[in-house]
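Hi C.,

You asked whether I'd gotten around to modeling the 659-residue construct. I have! Everything is below, sequence then structure, no commentary in between.
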Amino acid sequence: MGKRKKSLLRKKLQLALVLTATVSIFLITVFSLIYFFRVVKVKAVETMNSSQKVAELIYKNKMNEVEYFALSQANSKALTILVDLDIPNRISQYLQEVVEREQMFHITVYNSDGNVLSSVGLSRSPIVRNSDDLNLASGELVQQAIAGKIVTTTERISGNTGEDLLSISSAVPLNRNNRLIGALLIRYVLNERNEIVSGIRDLLDVQAGIFLDTVPVSMVGSFELSTDISSILMSGEQLYKISRMWFGGNFARYSTLYDWKNRPVGALGIYVSADTYIMSFVNAVIAVAAIMIVLIVISFFGAYMISRNIVNPINKLVYGANKIRNGDLSYEIVVNLKDEIGTLSDAFNSMRIVLKEKISTIQEMNVNLESTVKERTEQIVGLLNKMRKYLSPQLYESISGGDRTVEVTHERKKLTIFFSDIKDFTSTTDSMEAEALSEVLNNYLDEMAKIALKYGGTIDKFVGDAIMIFFGDPEFIDDKTHAFRAVKMALEMKRRLVELREEWSEKGYTNEFHVRMGINTGYCTVGNFGSENRMDYTIIGSQVNLAQRLEAAAPVDGILLSYETHSLISDEIECKYNGEIMVKGIHYPIKNYQVLHVRGEKESYKRYLKQVEEGLVLKSIIIHNNMSREEKEDVLRALTVAKNYAIGKRSEHPKKQEV
């Protein structure tokens, strides 16, 4: 039985070593082949890109050659004299000699009015053979030459019924004694010449062709320009690339040929089969596969030798480990080796002794650990729940989440600050009992706090009936959003206070609360102020004071904004400019704006009305001199609707009344 286990362990070890070696060799081989494939493809792509640039240079060189020939003929004294004397027969005779000598050009001479004096070419030339079918006017090129300009370009010569031609054409002016006497047009017809593509093939060892639409006008080799690719090139694309690195694939580059007005007229293409590169890759695969097989055979032999020397000591270690696992901490493992396995056996024995001691200690410690942890956890949770009531939610989350350190530190930030205060709070509540005052005030502060948290405001403090809130720390979004949220919050607080007055009135509290609100945006110092043992998270600075002064200057149930806040929200909130005011502590006039309503809100007068089953309720309204025109209109409309309902529509159900 023991021999069978030893044999099984040896086989597993041998299998593991062989599999590891085989997988490693295989992965290295695969990655090597992938890398080689990518290198070959990159090299092929780079070669094609370079070849495409060289092909364009060869084509450009031919254009320069045509232009040089045209200039040399334009400088011929014999030709200029004949043109100046207007002798068409002698001009044709002269041009015929030039054409017969060069064997590649078609030459047309024009007088200064753009009329043809002579047009000569080889008899086998498509231009000569199909002259009646072709549109050879070339008015644009000739007019440029008569205007004194030299134009060399690729020209598409349209046929009326037959095929079109593609030509490298050069139009140059003819001058004599600094006087323009005509124009010379040289055409190198690509349909009849293969010098360009042959030169590209001989130099770059690629197939080459010049295409008119999808038709090859000059070609060495056999490849195509598809309709789709031609459409892409003719739509303005300068270059189209094909790189298919696989069996039967190819590498091709197509460059667009343009006329002198930068209009696509043809394409220059080069082509190479991918088979050459693929065969290089296949040969590499065969060589690497042979090396991989040799390495796998070697790994089999190495696995056999290693497993034989490891199995016996490991069996002893396994047996001793099983004894310890079963709780027999008195068993000692003995392996007489000086290598890592011998060190491992000594470590097992040391572990056995330490483990025996630790288990005893742990058993003693676990007796009271669970109850202690539970008790401490309950205390911590209770303290945290109490603490969060004294902090704004944003500050609490940043401290408990570890984002903010609890130390005396502060920074300068641009914030939007909000102040509100109940008008004549002391005189208004002087006749109220302390219990009733506490209920109403706490109800008011609770509702305002809910609205502040809804808009993401950080509640700095409650000072009696006054509320201080700011936006922009500890959570920052952007200045515009902070200002907009602050104003939206103030408007909702204003609407909620109207509802609260009705609720308090129904409970018998006749003293009405009306508030003033001020909002300012500017740079403040924000952070923890105080000592290491007692600190407050708050904001200070002149901009905070300005917000408080705006609140004090605001009309009853009104909201005043500073210029800075108004500039951030003016596209969202309708406001009224209140002019400039002087406030305490600031030695310059302050521009201020009164908030009216959110732009786009309709029927704002309805905030003064409430529909109930019994009829229509007209909410309490304070009319003062500082009301805006829109607020006055809303009050008048609300009163009109209430009046019409009272005297004209009592018989109708309240829900049908327009509100």
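If it helps when you're writing up: Confidence is low (pLDDT under 50) at residues 650-659.

Thanks,
B.
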